[in-house]
Structure formats: C-alpha cells, structure tokens
Amino acid sequence: MLVFSTLYPNAIHPHHGVFVENRLRALIDRGGFEAQVIAPVPWFPSTHPRWGAYADYAAVPRREVRHGIPVFHPRYPVLPKIGMTLAPLLMAGALWPGMERLLAEGPAPDVIDAHYAYPDGVAAAVLARRLNKPLVITARGTDISVIPQYRLPRRMIVWAAGQAAAMVAVCKALKDEMVAIGIAEGAITVLRNGVDLGVFQPLDRAQARRSLDLAEEGPLIASVGHLIERKGHHLVIEALAALIKGPLPTLRLVIAGEGPERDRLEDLAKDLGVAARVRFLGRVPHEGLSAVYSAADALVLASSREGWANVLLESMACGTPVVASNIWGTPEVVTTPAAGVLLKERSAEAIAQSVAGLLAAPPPRVATRAYAERFSWDETASGLAALFSRVSGRPVPVSGQPAVSPARVGS
User: Fold this and answer.
1) Quick one: which of 122, 225, 116 has its CA closest to 174?
2) Which residue, 306, 300, 308, 319, is CA-closest to 371?
3) Which residues pair with 188 in a beta bridge?
4) What whole-number distance in Å separates Cα of residue 56 and Cα of residue 34?
5) Which of 39, 128, 159, 208 is surrounded by the fewest CB atoms within 10 Å?
6) Which 8-state DSSP code applies to residue 114?
7) Is residue 222 a contact partner of residue 295, using CB atoms and an 8 Å limit?
8) In sequence order, what are the beta bridge partners of 221?
C-alpha cells in the first residue's frame, strides 16, 4: 500500500491526523499488508521560531519511521487564500518527481490509499492515473461537509471519485452527503474509525485528577479539541457559568487543546466570572488524554461540524459518558444512555440542561466502557482488508492469520 495524506503525524506534530495512522497500524497488525506513507507538508524556507506554525512545517523531517512504517514528507507549494482551487494540481505537480524516485527504490504499490477528499484525494487521483494503480479515497468530514460548497472544488472531488476504484466514508451521514454532491452511491463503503482500547481505558478517577493537579472532590466536565470556534469550547464555558449559578455550584471544567482561540476563551471565562473554575491544559499528548477523560464525570463536545469524532469513543473507552452536538456522524456514535446524551440544539442552554441531567443520573462506568468496546479497530480493519483486496485483485489472509513480519513492513 501507498498511503497518501497531509493528515498524518510527524516528529513535529505527533498527533496530527493520528486517526489515519491508527487505521493503518490496525490494518498492518491484522496481517497481509505492507505500507509506506507519503505525507506532504507545505513548503516553507525557514525554521526560525519567529515564523510560528510556518517554521514548524520547515522543521518536519524529509523521512522518518513511525511504528515501523516508513514515512516521507515531500514539500508542496501553498498559496494562502487564493490557492484553494489550485491546491490539488500544485500538490500533484510538486510531488510527482519525488514519488518517481521513491518508487524506484522499491516495489510498486498494489493500491493507493488516500485520506481527505480535497485536495489530497484529487492530487492522489492525478498521481494514480500516472501510475496506473487503483485508488481508494477516504472522506472524513469538512472535505465533504464544507469544501463542496465551492463549485470548482466540488467538481474536482466528484471527478476524483470517478477515478477511484472505491470511496470510503467514516459515517453514514457523510456517505449521504457524498451521494448528494454527485458521487455514485454504489462506490461508497462506510467504514467508521475505531478506538484503541489498550491506550484508552478507565483509570482511577481520583488518581487521574491528582495527575492533572486537580482537586479530587466535586463534579468535573472536560472539553477536548483544537481551540477554534467550530469546536464550541465557548459554549461549554457559557454553560459552566449557568450551571454554577444553578444545580451544580461546585462544577469545574478542564479544556485540553491549543489553538488561536485560547486568549478569547480565557477572556470569556474572566468576563463570566468562572476563570477560577476553568483549567486550560494546553496540548495534551494523545496517550495522555486517558487521564483527562478518566478524571472527568462527562466529556462535552459542542462542535458545529464533525465527520466521526474520535474523542467521543476515546472518552467512552475510559468509562466517561459524553454530551455531544447532534451532527453528522455523532448520532451513529451516541446511540444508548450508556454512551451519553445528544444535544437537542447547539447552545449553552442545551449543554447546561444535558450536563445537569447526565450528572444527576450517570450510567455506570463499566457500562460506558462496554459500549465503547463495540468500536474496536478489528471490524474496520477487516472491512478495509476486504476492500483493498478487491480493488487490487490480490488476496489477503483472513483475520487471525500470521501477520507480516515487522522487519519487512515498508520494505
């Protein structure tokens, strides 16, 4: 397999697109697959800290090995604001020479596995045509829910889908939208994300709170995700202010994540008089999120857009129920009281009501964990194996057969 995606972790951003890496690892662990990854990053000339996030792009290594999988990070040009419609062609044109050299070093792939329909999927379709290799494109969220609002990108996405041997959607709601923009329904397979049940498991709540330097007593809610407007952290802070004045006077909130909205969120907490009840944890390592989920009595996800929100399953796997916006794939995740509650509307008032109700009668942690165990990666990996076997014409072992030797992965 040749995995192609700008959504892939690297040494500088180890949690960026970690769900793509986790899916690939689950497939390789299942057996029968070898892979190498092309994970392009925007070109930038300087690593000087004064350039902020742009300098981070320059610092990403050209090559690295993650979990035994070789990962290559070629550069491609980005034209801010004006380059949206040119992005796929700029990406494909910049990557082709390096891809030719890479493929000359080893065997040609049997299948190209691209993630995110635009621009990645469109660029991958251009490259797949030149290589004459079957392509599978996985759509994940805003690539279908937002980008097709623009006419030319929508046409390119539909064109790329026509070039692909198969399309994958991470939830049924996303598949429905893909059909609505003109992608053939029969070409789309729904294969949801899973959760690593070994990494995410219940920890002792008091111990988890101590590890985060939080008081052990009293109710606690968590909000996890990039600090941007669409994640809705501001709504959770507003709900906290209402709950403190009402049924939960000792309630606290922890927010895990970094992003451009942090100053505004901190100012909002001060303005509402709840700054002392809000703890900003900053960027938390992926494996460290278990302590955050386990410390909380509930996770609140107030996003306006999500394809398949991994934080929901991660929280449930730690025994912590969720309060979540009723959007896109979320109703496919939160289906029973053991999982948590779907919001009637995306508002601070609805969040406050749902949190109060959930904390008044929470499900047993063991029930929430048991529900999450239905979403291991095993089913998804089996579905992917069957799909890739079909489009490549090469059989793969059934689940349980000996896996490929780690020493040969990516050889």
Assistant:
1) 116
2) 319
3) 167
4) 29
5) 159
6) E
7) yes
8) 253, 298
The token pair that represents 368 in the structure block: 């929430």
Distances (CA, A) of 78 to 55, 57, 94, 301, 303: 14, 12, 11, 31, 27
Residue 108: CB atoms within 10 Å: 10
d(CA 363, CA 327): 23
pTM: 0.85
Show the tokens assigned to 236. 């959770």
pLDDT tens-digit series, residues 279-316: 999 999 888 999 999 999 999 999 988 878 889 999 99
pLDDT of amino acid 309: 87
- Which of 39, 42, 48, 49 lies closest to 16, judged by CA? 39
Residue 145: pLDDT band with limits 50, 70, 90 = confident
Question: Measured between alpha carbons, how far is residue 17 from residues 23, 98, 233, 311 in Å?
Answer: 10, 22, 21, 13
Phi-psi region of 212 (alpha: psi -120 to 50; beta: other; left: phi over 0): alpha
Residue closest to 322 by CA, chosen among 305, 302, 306: 302
Closest CA to 88 of 4, 8, 18, 168: 4
Give Cβ neighbours of residue 342 (< 8 Å, ≥ 6 apart): 324, 325, 326, 330, 331, 334
- Distance CA(205)–CA(75), nearest Å, equals 44
**Residue partners of 340: CB distance under 8 A and separation at least 6:** 298, 299, 312, 316, 321, 322, 323, 324, 334, 358, 363, 368
**DSSP label of 309:** -
User: 165 and 131 in contact (C-beta within 8 Å)?
Assistant: no
- Rounded Cα distance between 74 and 6, Å, is 10
Q: Which two tokens stand for residue 192?
A: 């949801």
Average pLDDT over residues 392-403: 68
Residues 167 and 173 sit within 8 Å (Cβ to Cβ): no
Q: Strands across the sheet with 135-139, in order?
A: 63-66, 69-72, 36-38, 2-4, 112-115, 135-139, 166-169, 188-190
Per-residue tokens: 406: 């780690």
